[in-house]
Amino acid sequence: MRRQLMTGLFLLLSMIASANDQDKHSPEKKGLDDYEQQRQHMMREIRRDFIETASHTNGLRLSKSVAEALNSTPRHRFVPAHLREIAYANRPLNIGHRQTISQPFIVALMTEGLQLQGCENILEIGTGSGYQAAVLSPLCKQVYTIEIVPELAASARERLQPWNNIEVVTGNGYLGLPEHAPFDRIIVTAGGDIPPALLEQLAPGGKMIIPVGPVSQIQFLTVIDKSSDGKITQDSILPVRFVPLRQR
Ligand code: SAH
């Protein structure tokens, strides 16, 4: 009896082990499992940063839906291969062409600042790696993201193929994207002046988040609201440092 029990237990354990092995051999599963702990660590750091910056961010909190979007986006696929091991560190990383993928906390904060309901048409200026667009994807209806460096636009387009509500456009986002305007939300992930075209292309009742200030210096993350009668108000929150928003 005792021996039968032991044999049964052994069989059960080997079945579990072989099921795990199978998971590991599926590329999708392997990618996610290998980074699970790092992603959890990233989420803890993001939560900590929300608490530490609360006095500068108008009490913005990390919502369940935004946390879930970050937690289910494979950031390691958005960084160059040699940086994959530190993909989930809470810091910006180089993606080539003198550009960066933003720090995870800033991605979380900007996403939260947009106050998405799920039905929005969003414009992102500065596709970069495509990570921010991928985080926005499950939280809205459609993301148009525009990138001025053709090589970055091409690789992001390729990488984002599995996300079916994201369209990557190659071009100058300082001019917006009139053919798909108006936008319920606009997110600018490069720092500089507020582009007049973006104010025009923001829908009444819409919201934009943008780092405003001198290029290559400290900017202020700024939330801009357009009321239903077209009145613009703006509120500067956290000091940040973004790569320059090019005008041409
Ligand atoms: N959102 C990105 C990070 C942005 S880095 C991510 O998640 O990885 C800023 C990007 O803005 C760079 O790739 C830069 O080339 C791009 N950029 C700068 N000025 C631009 C402009 N006028 N139009 C479109 N893209 C611009």
Describe the structure.
This protein is of the alpha/beta class and 248 residues long. Helices cover 36% and strands 23% of the residues. The protein has seven helices and nine strands; from the N terminus they run αααββαβαβαββαβββ. The strands form two sheets. It has a seven-stranded mixed beta sheet. A two-stranded antiparallel ribbon has the order 1-2. Helix 2 (27-52) packs across helix 4. It is globular and about 50 Å long. The structure holds S-adenosyl-L-homocysteine (SAH). Residues 99-102, 125-126, 128-129, 131-132, 146-149, 152, 172-174, 189-190, 243, 245-246 line the site of S-adenosyl-L-homocysteine.
Defining key terms:
single chain, 248 residues, binds S-adenosyl-L-homocysteine, alpha/beta
Unreliable residue stretches: 1-30
Bound molecules: S-adenosyl-L-homocysteine
Radius of gyration (CA) equals 21 Å
Major β-sheet annotation: 7 strands, mixed
Q: What is the general shape?
A: globular
Average the pLDDT over all residues and give the rounded result: 90
How much strand? Answer: 15-25%
Decide which structural class fits the backbone: alpha/beta
Distance between the termini: 80 Å
User: What is the chain-wise order of helices and strands?
Assistant: HHHEEHEHEHEEHEEE
In what order do the strands lie side by side in the largest sheet? 5-4-3-6-7-8-9
Helix content: 25-40%
E-strand count: 9
